[in-house]
Design a protein that fits this description.
Layout: E1 4-8, H1 14-26, E2 29-33, E3 46-54, E4 57-58, H2 60-68, H3 70-74, E5 77-84, H4 87-100, E6 105-112, E7 114-115, H5 122-134, E8 142-143, H6 147-163, H7 170-183, E9 186-193, E10 196-203, E11 205-207, E12 210-215, H8 219-224, E13 229-235, E14 245-255, H9 259-268, H10 273-278, E15 284-297, E16 308-312
Helix pairs in contact: 1-6
Bound molecules: flavin mononucleotide (FMN).
């Protein structure tokens, strides 16, 4: 498991809010202002640092921290973000920091900041009115803080973090994933459309990168009519942290109308078409083409691999 440390500095709360959202999505994570950095932070693997931009520079406390902890940071994988009003300036400033940190900066994030004139100190008010007039902007509050942008950036970081996992060889991982899928027969299928969500426990059968589900119908189809994007969870009961086994699948669902495919699945399940025809109601077939499997198995750790593994189909 890769542990993430989110370190930030914030004067008026925007960078703090962004750091909070990022650490929620990147968990397992710890979020600290720089003032709380301590020995406990040494063994985190992935370090995300966030700063506001003031007068064309990163926060002075962040600048000091980067100088003081240069040696420690050399050993880490890093992502940097800022909140600011002028995105191109924010990017320039972050690139300067990146140059000083050499090769281990994996991602930069320029996020919109927030400015409430009535909350500023006398000194900041003065500095800011000078900054706004230099930029040709009116001396008034601004709100460029956008939660969707922050969530998108955090999800990108999550993918980057997954690349840092100690990976099983792909052929072995595929075997592990397929064995797990074949050893189980019940999943939770999550479908959604707009504000409507549905999690449905269902029996499935796995065959070559696809899950097949027979269903009499129900609310999940209301969502599938509009969105084929699905997520599937298959897992064992929790007995302890050293025995976790479960997967989250991302895939595309199709309601199968091809008779040959339907018949093959019925055979695969050891049933006869005559039996299906004798039923008083229709049985529909859903096929889920697997795209990505996130497999959590604590036992991988004993072999020196990350307990979390990602298989892309
Ligand atoms: C005194 C002052 C100077 C600022 N200077 C800049 C600047 O040079 N460039 C910029 O893009 N934003 C500038 N901003 C906007 C802040 O970067 C933005 O409001 C940020 O989100 C504040 O972060 P915080 O709420 O975490 O303190 C300035 C804001 C203040 C109050």
């Amino acid at each position: 498991m890769i542990k993430t440390l989110v370190l930030y500095e914030s004067r008026y709360g925007s960078t703090w809010e962004a750091a909070n959202i990022i650490s929620l999505i990147l968990g397992p994570a710890r979020r600290y202002p720089l003032s709380q950095f301590s020995e406990d932070c040494q063994n985190f693997d992935f370090i995300i640092m966030g700063t506001p931009i003031y007068n064309g520079k990163i926060h002075p406390k962040m600048a000091n921290f980067l100088d003081q902890k240069r040696e420690w940071l050399k050993e880490k994988k890093i992502a940097l973000f800022c909140t600011c009003l002028n995105g191109s300036e924010g990017l320039r400033v972050l690139r300067e920091v990146e140059d000083r940190l050499e090769d281990n900066v994996l991602e930069l994030g320029v996020l919109g900041g927030r400015l409430q004139m009535d909350r500023l100190t006398e000194q900041d008010y003065q500095n800011l009115t000078e900054y706004l007039s230099r930029e040709g902007l009116p001396p008034q509050g601004m709100d460029l803080f956008n939660i969707e942008d922050i969530v998108d950036w955090a999800l990108r970081l999550k993918d980057i973090k997954d690349e840092l996992l100690n990976k099983l060889p792909v052929s072995r991982l595929r075997e592990e994933v397929e064995n797990f899928l074949k050893q189980h027969n019940t999943c939770t299928l999550a479908t959604s459309f707009m504000g409507r969500v549905r999690a449905t426990p269902l029996e499935y059968v796995y065959n070559q990168g696809q899950l097949y589900i027979l269903s009499e119908g129900g609310e999940k189809f209301a969502n599938l009519m509009f969105s084929s994007r699905v997520s599937v969870a298959i897992y064992e009961d929790y007995t302890g942290m050293d025995n976790i086994k479960g997967m989250q699948i991302t895939g595309q669902a199709t309601i199968v109308d091809d008779l040959d495919e339907y018949q093959q699945v019925i055979e695969m399940k050891g049933m006869k078409m005559d039996f299906i025809r004798s039923l008083p109601v229709d049985l529909h077939l859903i096929r889920i083409d697997l795209e990505k499997v996130e497999f959590l198995k604590s036992e991988f750790k004993k072999e020196g691999y990350s307990s979390r593994q990602i298989l892309k189909f």
